Amino acid sequence: MKLKTNVFHFTPFSKKQLQVLTWWVNPSTKDSEAIICDGSVRAGKTVIMSLSYVMWAMHTFNGQQLGMAGKTIGSFRRNVLRPLKQMLAGRGYKVIDHRTDNMFEVVKNGKANYFFIFGGKDEASQDLVQGLTAAGFFFDEVALMPQSFVNQATARVSVSGGKYWFNMNPEGPYHWFKLNWIDDLKGKRALRIHFRMEDNPSLSEDVIGRYKRNYSGVFYQRYILGLWVMSEGVIYDNFNRETMVVSEPPGRCTKYYVSVDYGTQNPTVFLLWGFYNGVWYCLKEYYYDGRHSARQKTDDQYANDLDEFVGNINARIIIDPSAASFIAVLRNRHYRIIRADNDVLNGIRETQSAMNNGLIKFTDNLPNLFKELASYIWDDKASSNGEDKVIKEHDHAMDSMRYFVYMVLRHNNKAKVIKNKYF
């Protein structure tokens, strides 16, 4: 089946993009066995690397198998293959997609090569590439893949003249890829090209400015400056009481949600959110710590407290899906439930962005939330082992806040498309 294509409109390439496009024919770099492109988000790495990879393969081989991997096959098709097929069609390549085999075939001037697609999402993914004999391997967002998968995939490149292609946004300085590849370029015979957003000529200054406003702290250093830095210190170091805290919204809210972090031994938190004129306000909190109180509460008692907390407000409830028994009680009381996505790191990043862009604000009646904002910190021990983790203390209001932002603000555009699913 032919892939349906549209015309890909190129802007003039930057110096670094041209280097990626031609490194395999440049006399000073063509003997390198791998290319590594790391740096900020939206820097133009993936588009130019994928095009260069296929052009190199078609120039060098005929009738060979090659590998290409993303975090998942779905993300690869969306982020890599979709623009890639447009670029190739514009350059006279015929692309045939064999979706059932997770493979696409590229043909030009009597040559044909076969590109197999893999997802490297977990340790079990290494089993998928066993048995493949490859002439090259391309990894999109390799820092998100387990080392076992990448090791197995690189081991499959056994055809003479084969090369590796890696792109990624930075993680921590002790990440396995940083230690094994970037810190050993000479040993790996690898070429590294470090990108910033300014290296992508298709981005305007306004767009670059918007991305810079979206990130704070460690995420700003990694995704904007492109640095491999450790996650440490207070997580929401962007919190500014002067600009983010108000006595009350300037008008009457028109939509409401309650986000819930449920605990038995740990605290249970309700946060009420109201929408007014483009901003979500955290209006009030409920915070009950059974461990430090005289007694534990049952699900029905918490549901009674929620009834009182919500009152006559028409609000949906966003709650961690692991709270199965409490969800059942709430459904019996006819609450409309949204099961939260408990993606901690992406949730933190989205919440920082919402704070930076003035999409969420807080009333001054949230004492426990403010305490946690000042004491919610990164786990230094995990960072020294190459992992980004939060310390699971003083995090219950933080989890509740994150559930709300990730399920409402992040999905807002989707919600408008899918018949107002969330509103």
TrEMBL record:
InterPro entries the record matches: P-loop_NTPase (IPR027417), Phage_terminase_lsu (IPR006437), Terminase_6C (IPR035421)
What is the protein named?
A: Phage terminase large subunit
Where does the Terminase large subunit gp17-like C-terminal domain lie?
329-406
Q: Which Pfam families match?
A: Terminase_6C (PF17289), Terminase_6N (PF03237)
Question: Keywords assigned by UniProt?
Answer: Viral release from host cell
Does this entry carry the keyword Membrane? no
Say which species the protein is native to.
Pediococcus pentosaceus (strain ATCC 25745 / CCUG 21536 / LMG 10740 / 183-1w)
